[in-house]
Amino acid sequence: MRVVFVGPPGAGKGTQAENIVRDYGLFHLSTGDALRAAVKAQTPIGLEADKYMKAGALVPDEVVIGVVVERLDEATSGCLLDGFPRTIAQAEALDKILAEKNAPLDVVLELAVPEDELFRRLASRGRADDNPDVIKQRLVAYHEQTEPLVGYYSKSGILRKIDGLGSVEDIYDRIRAVLDEYK
Ligand code: AMP
């Protein structure tokens, strides 16, 4: 099963992703985690990505697509893509890569959470890019660059919207109900 997880920053993708990969045995590919590791290790990609991440902007498509291509090879039998794609160009690149491997996406989960709740959750998290100015920028980037993916994947008929309000357990129950249809 190949799954994409879409949702604004603070929606709880990371938390739910851990539940999903544990229970469904999927390879977890979080581009945010991969980029943070590259920043920490001060690799060329990390040095390039750092300035965008600090500003709450998206890292350029070609950099992120490179990170994904490197890791996707071993993962086509089952993966959860968490935080990728985040632009239409990334989604098109992903479709192309997966088509070449004869391994299309099964489902895209959109985790939907209202904006005031996102601010509340992000403000209590304490990551380096969780200060109010950067949070605002990340939400702008989400609305302008990532939200169009909802339309993109609706058109291909694989989008499923999940209500992201409530307890972690309730939200995970909703996710499981959807994913179990694709097992
Ligand atoms: P995340 O952990 O998914 O919230 O990502 C943290 C930051 O990493 C984002 O604010 C972006 O700067 C960068 N990033 C992660 N994934 C992507 C992506 N698919 N495209 C561009 N930038 C990304």
Write the layout of secondary structure elements.
Elements: E1 2-6, H1 13-24, E2 27-30, H2 31-41, H3 44-55, H4 61-72, E3 79-82, H5 88-100, E4 107-112, H6 115-123, H7 132-146, H8 148-155, E5 159-163, H9 168-179
Parallel strand pairs: 1-3, 1-4, 2-3, 4-5
Bound molecules: adenosine monophosphate.
Residues 9, 31-32, 35, 52-53, 56, 58-59, 64, 83-86, 90, 138 line the site of adenosine monophosphate (AMP).
Protein architecture, described:
By secondary structure, this protein is an alpha/beta fold. It has a single domain (2-182), classed as P-loop containing nucleotide triphosphate hydrolases (Rossmann fold), CATH 3.40.50. It is 57% helix and 13% strand. It has helices spanning 13-24, 31-41, 44-55, 61-72, 88-100, 115-123, 132-146, 148-155, 168-179, and strands at residues 2-6, 27-30, 79-82, 107-112, 159-163. A five-stranded parallel beta sheet has the order 2-3-1-4-5, sandwiched between helices. It is globular, with a radius of gyration of 16 Å. The model has no long low-confidence stretch (mean pLDDT 94). Adenosine monophosphate binds next to helix 2 and helix 3.
